[in-house]
Amino acid sequence: MNRSDVLIIGAGPTGLVLALWLSKLGIRVRILDKTSAPGTTSRALAVQARTLELYHQLDLSDAVIQKGHRVAAANFWVKGEPVARLPLSRVGEGLTPYAFLEIFPQDEHERLLIERLEAFGIRVERDTELESFEETGDGITARLRLPDGQQETCQACYLAGCDGARSIVRKTLDTGFPGGTYQQIFYVADVQASGPALNGELHLDLDEADFLAVFPLAGEGRARLIGTVRDERAEHADTLQFEDISTRAIEHLKVQIEQVNWFSTYRVHHRVADHFRSGRAFLLGDAAHVHSPAGGQGMNTGIGDAINLAWKLAAVLSGGAAPHLLDTYETERIAFARKLVATTDRVFSFVTAEGRVADLLRMRLAPFLLPKMASFETSREFLFRTVSQITLNYRGMPLSTGVAGHVHGGDRLPWAHDGEGDNFRSLKCPSWQVHVYGDTSDEMIAWCHEHHLPLHVFDWRPAFEAAGLGRNGFYLLRPDTYVAIAETCSDPKVIERYFRDRGIRPFFDAH
After folding, report:
1. If 322 and its partner were Cys, which of 26, 466, 473, 503 is the partner (CB 3.0–4.6 Å)?
2. Would you give the distance in Å from CA 110 to the centre of its chain?
C-alpha cells in the first residue's frame, strides 16, 4: 500500500508550496490533482513582499522577480482622464528587500513551482481524485480514483486539503463554511492591447459606469482586465463572451483591444471555514477561506498557510516536536483569515458599490484624497505594510512571547539594512535560530553551541535601532522567520523553558 508522510490534495500554489517546503525538510509527500494539466487561465496576479521574503528560503524569490513584472505606479481615472498617480516602485523602501508590487500570473507561478518540485523527484499525480478518507489510529486511509478509473487505497500520516473553494476534504470533515456571495458578476480577460493604459503601470477606472482595472503583465502590450458585468447582461453571465460586455470603461481608459487570449466571468465569495483542522486533516488556501480579490491577498494567504503548516508538520514527523504543535496552525491562521475577509470586504464594497453617494465618493472624493494620501510617507507606508502582509503577526498566541525594542513575540522579524549588509541573510535556512543585536552572554554562546542552535550576533548599528530592534537582548526565530521569543536579557534558560513547555526539540529537526 502506498504510504506517504503527507498526502496533499490539490496542486494550486498552496498545495505546491506545501509540497516544496516539506520536501526541502526531508518529508515524503504525495500531491495529486483532479485536473489533467496545470491551469492556463488564472486570476491571482500579485506576489506580495512577505511571500517573496519567505520564498527566499527556497531560492524562489529571484526567479519570480525575473519572470514577473514590477509595477511602477497605480493610476486612477475619472471621466476618461487620469486624475491621480500613486508611485509604487519604492513604496515600502526600508521595510523589506522587496519594496514593490510584483505581478506574476498564477499559471506561470504554478509552472515554476512544479519545476522546482520535480527537482526533489516529486511529480503531481494528474487526473487523480480523492473519493473519501478516514482517520485510522496512527494515520489517514484515503481512497483515490486513478486516471484509468481504477481505485487505489493509500495511507498517510497527515492529509492536507488544498483543493479549493469546493473542497472535498472540507465537505468530508463536515466543517461549516459561513459567509456569502457578492451580487456583482466580474469578468477577467487576458488581452493584447495598446493605448496610454498599456504603459506597464496599473490603471483603475473609478467611473459610475463600470469598474475596470488594467493590470500590466510581463511583455509588450500584455494586460489583465478585471471589470464588472452590470445591467441585464449579468443574468446571462455563464454564456457571456468578451464581445458581450460593456465597453464604456474600456473606452474611458482608451484601451485598444487587439486580441483576447482568454476570458471568463465569475462571482466573488467571502467565507472562512469554522475549523482549519480536524484530527490529522488540515484545510489550507481557498479550501479554508475565500475573499474578494481586493488587494491581491488570496493566493498569498494560501501560501502563508502552507509555510505555517509545513515547518510544524516537518517538526512533528521528524521527532522535533510533540503532535500538539499542530494545534497552533488553526489558531494562527484562522484569526488572520477572518480579519482579512472583513478588510477586503470593506474595500471591495467601496469599489463596486452602486448609487449616487457611491459614485460621488469614488469620482470626487477618492481622486482628491488619493494623491494627498500618497504624498504622506506614513499613509503610503501603512498601505504597503497592510497589503504586503509584512504586518501579519501572531502576537498573544501560544508560540509567541515577550517584547524587546518595538518587536513582540509573534511579529515578523523586521528587516534592517545599511551599507554593512542586512539581517535577513541567515533566514535562508528554515530552522530555529537566535539573533542578538549588540552583545550577548557567554552562557548564551555556550548553550546555543551545545544544543546546535544557530546563533547570529550582529554588532550594534543605528540601522537596528531604526528597525525597532532591541539592543543586547535576543530573538528566538521560528523556521518561518517569525519571532517566537523577544527578550531583553541574555539568559539561555528562557529558551530552554520555552522549548520544554511547548514540547519542541529543535535540535532533532530533520534539517
Report:
1. 503
2. 14
